């Protein structure tokens, strides 16, 4: 199997006492470098487990996971920490900003722990926040806070951007604005972006769609003509 991101027969089992829960069963798929991929499925389908394993926040029970030529599923705890720090940017449904730091300081904090960071001010300008850099999170709208969270992830100059329901806490119009930024990151910067969502309408904007159900990948589709975010309705 080729691809920048590769899951090969990944299984994840959680044990609660004598009970075993199969979160993932034989999950296999790939994502090419520079693609915007949407992983879609209902609650409990295994989307977040996939994202957590790919992001180095959880380990698998069986199988292999690669980013480029690196098998991240073989990493020990120390290497996983470095992987999370240098290689992956995270955008969550809830923004997780440091409340007593300004927008710029939140982004600078991420840039300080990276090997080859992007300029925090330039990144904030790229997400439309050039006039809000000195504001604290409480002084920003939900959409502006999510833009700061995206800028913080991008400032790390990551190899991979992972987004967990990034519009889940936003209204329709603001959510579309955030999705447009993510689509532009892929189109204009060649960044590999993976979004997990329960909203199947978002699949229209993706280069690749992975559908999951009951812990299994049920389909993988390459979209030859992704739709601009502006044209999506849900």
Polypeptide structure, described:
The protein has 234 residues and is α/β, with parallel strands linked by helices. The chain has one domain: P-loop containing nucleotide triphosphate hydrolases (Rossmann fold, 3-Layer(aba) Sandwich). 28% of the residues lie in helices and 28% in strands. It has 6 helices and 10 strands; from the N terminus they run βββαββαβαααβαβββ. α3 (103-111) runs parallel beside α5 (142-155) and α4 crosses α5 (142-155). The mean pLDDT is 93.
List the helices and strands and how they pair.
Elements: E1 5-16, E2 19-31, E3 36-40, H1 47-54, E4 62-67, E5 70-71, H2 77-86, E6 88-91, H3 103-111, H4 120-126, H5 142-155, E7 160-164, H6 172-189, E8 192-197, E9 208-213, E10 216-222
Parallel strand pairs: 3-8, 3-9, 6-7, 7-8
Antiparallel strand pairs: 1-2, 1-4, 4-5, 9-10
How would a crystallographer describe the biggest sheet? Answer: 6 strands, mixed
What is the fourth-level CATH superfamily? P-loop containing nucleotide triphosphate hydrolases
As for the CATH topology, it is: Rossmann fold
Strand arrangement across the biggest beta sheet: 6-7-8-3-9-10
The span between the termini is 34 Å
Mean pLDDT: 93
**SSE pattern, N- to C-terminal:** EEEHEEHEHHHEHEEE
Number of DSSP E strands: 10
CATH architecture: 3-Layer(aba) Sandwich
Number of helices: 6
Summarize this structure briefly.
With 234 residues, the chain is of the alpha/beta class. The chain has helices at 47-54, 77-86, 103-111, 120-126, 142-155, 172-189; strands at residues 5-16, 19-31, 36-40, 62-67, 70-71, 88-91, 160-164, 192-197, 208-213, 216-222. The chain is built from six helices and ten strands.
């Amino acid at each position: 199997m080729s691809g920048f991101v590769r899951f090969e027969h990944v299984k994840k089992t959680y044990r609660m006492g004598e009970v075993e829960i199969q979160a993932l069963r034989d999950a296999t798929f790939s994502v090419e470098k520079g693609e915007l991929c949407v992983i879609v499925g209902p609650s409990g389908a295994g989307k977040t487990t996939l994202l957590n394993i790919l992001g180095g926040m959880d380990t698998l029970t069986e199988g292999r996971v690669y980013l480029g030529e690196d098998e991240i599923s073989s990493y020990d705890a120390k290497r996983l920490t470095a992987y999370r720090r240098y290689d992956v940017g995270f955008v969550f449904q809830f923004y997780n900003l440091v409340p007593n730091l300004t927008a710029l300081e939140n982004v600078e904090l991420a840039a300080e722990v990276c090997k080859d960071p992007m300029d925090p001010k330039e990144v904030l300008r790229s997400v439309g926040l050039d006039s809000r850099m000195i504001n604290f999170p409480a002084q920003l709208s939900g959409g502006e806070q999510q833009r700061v969270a995206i800028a913080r992830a991008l400032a790390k100059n990551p190899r991979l951007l992972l987004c967990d329901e990034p519009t889940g806490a936003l209204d329709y119009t603001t959510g579309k604005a955030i999705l447009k930024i993510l689509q532009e990151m892929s189109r204009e910067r060649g960044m590999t972006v993976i979004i997990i969502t329960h909203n199947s309408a978002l699949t229209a904007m993706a280069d690749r769609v992975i559908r999951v159900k009951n812990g299994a990948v049920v389909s993988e589709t390459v979209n030859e003509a992704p739709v601009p975010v502006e044209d999506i309705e849900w």
